[in-house]
Write a structure and sequence with these properties.
Elements: E1 2-7, H1 12-28, E2 30-38, H2 41-47, H3 54-82, E3 91-97, H4 100-111, E4 115-119, H5 125-130, H6 133-141, E5 146-149, E6 160-164, H7 169-185, E7 188-195, H8 203-214, E8 221-227, H9 231-241, E9 246-251, H10 256-259, H11 264-271, E10 277-281
Parallel strand pairs: 1-2, 1-4, 2-3, 4-5, 6-7, 6-9, 7-8, 9-10
Antiparallel strand pairs: 5-10
Helix pairs in contact: 1-3, 4-6
Length: 285
C-alpha cells in the first residue's frame, strides 16, 4: 500500500489538513503516518534562555505522543466512513524530537512515504508555500509531493485540478503523478501556461513539452495558454471560475513562481488563493 504522511502541530488548521489527509488515504487505499516534531532539549534551552528543565521537555514529549494518538483515534472514525472494510488503511503514530527537516528526511525513507499533507498555520496555502517557515522547511527537504491545506478546507471530492507549467522536465514527473491520482478520482486535469504578450522565447521547450503531453493516455486532460502580465492573478481567477479544488505546481528554487514574488501585485494575488496546493519538488522521486 501507499503511505501518506500527515504532519501536525496540533493546531486547528493542522487538524483540518489531517481530516483531508485521512479522506485521501481512504480513497487511495494508503496507510497513514501521523507525525509531530518537537524541539530537542538543547534547542529548548536556547529558545527559553536557559529556563527550561529536563522535566519540562519530558512532559512535552509525553504530550506530543498523547496528542498524536488522540488525532489517530479521530481519524480512525473518518477512515471507516470512506474506506471498504477489506481496504481500510492502517494509521501509525510517530513523534520525535529534533529539527523538522532532518526528521522529515528520515521518516520519508523509513516509512516509504508517497505524499505529505500539512496545514497552513494562518493565511492561505500558497502564502505558506513561499513564506511559512515550517512549510518552506518541508518543501526544501522533501522528495515527495507536499499538499498544503488552508484553514476551513471542506472538499468532499476532487473534480478539477489546475497544473501550472513552465515547460520544465520536472513538470512531466509531476503530471505523471497527477495522472495516477486522476485514475482514482477521475478529475479533469487542466494544464495552464501563462505567458506575457510577445514572449516567444520558449517555443522549442513548449513544442517538446506539448508533444510529450499528447502522448499521455489520460482522457480528461486539457492544455491551455493564457496571455497576461499578472501571471498569478490569472491563475487565481482561473481556479475560481472553473471551481477547481486543487492547484498544483513544481517548486524550483529559481522558477518563475519564485521570481514573481518580487512584484507586490503578485504577492497580493497569492494571498487570495483559497484552495489546497500540491507542490512537487524538482527532485521528485
Amino acid at each position: 500500500m501507499k503511505n501518506i504522511l500527515i504532519l501536525t502541530d496540533f493546531s486547528e488548521n493542522a487538524a483540518g489538513a489531517a481530516t483531508f489527509g485521512a479522506y485521501l488515504g481512504s480513497k487511495l487505499h494508503a496507510n497513514i503516518v501521523i507525525f509531530n516534531s518537537y524541539l530537542k532539549f538543547s534547542e529548548a534551552l536556547s529558545y527559553a534562555g536557559g529556563s527550561w528543565v529536563a522535566d519540562d521537555v519530558l512532559r512535552w514529549r509525553e504530550e506530543s505522543k498523547l496528542h498524536v494518538n488522540q488525532l489517530a483515534e479521530s481519524l480512525e472514525q473518518l477512515v471507516a466512513l470512506h474506506a471498504a472494510a477489506t481496504e481500510k488503511p492502517m494509521i501509525h503514530c510517530h513523534s520525535a524530537e529534533g529539527n523538522l527537516g532532518d526528521n522529515l528526511v528520515d521518516i520519508i525513507k523509513e516509512k516509504n512515504i508517497d505524499l505529505i499533507v500539512m496545514g497552513a498555520r494562518t493565511g492561505t496555502a500558497i502564502e505558506h508555500v513561499f513564506w511559512g517557515s515550517d512549510t518552506a522547511t518541508v518543501i526544501q527537504h522533501s522528495t515527495r509531493p507536499v499538499l498544503v491545506v488552508p484553514a476551513k478546507t471542506d472538499i468532499q471530492n476532487i473534480t478539477k485540478v489546475v497544473f501550472a507549467t513552465d515547460f520544465e522536465d520536472a513538470d512531466k514527473k509531476a503530471l505523471q503523478y497527477l495522472e495516477g491520482l486522476g485514475e482514482i478520482f477521475h478529475f479533469k486535469l487542466e494544464i495552464i501556461h501563462i505567458t506575457p504578450p510577445g514572449d516567444d522565447n520558449k517555443d522549442e521547450k513548449k513544442s517538446t513539452f506539448t508533444h510529450w503531453l499528447s502522448q499521455l493516455e489520460y482522457p480528461y486532460i486539457t492544455y491551455k495558454e493564457i496571455s497576461g502580465t499578472d501571471v498569478v492573478e490569472k491563475l487565481n481567477s482561473l481556479c475560481t471560475t472553473t471551481n477547481s479544488e486543487l492547484l498544483a505546481m513544481v517548486h524550483h528554487q529559481h522558477s518563475f513562481f519564485v521570481r514573481l514574488l518580487h512584484e507586490s501585485t503578485t504577492k497580493r494575488a497569492l494571498l487570495n488563493q483559497k484552495i489546497p496546493i500540491m507542490v512537487f519538488p524538482s527532485s521528485l522521486e
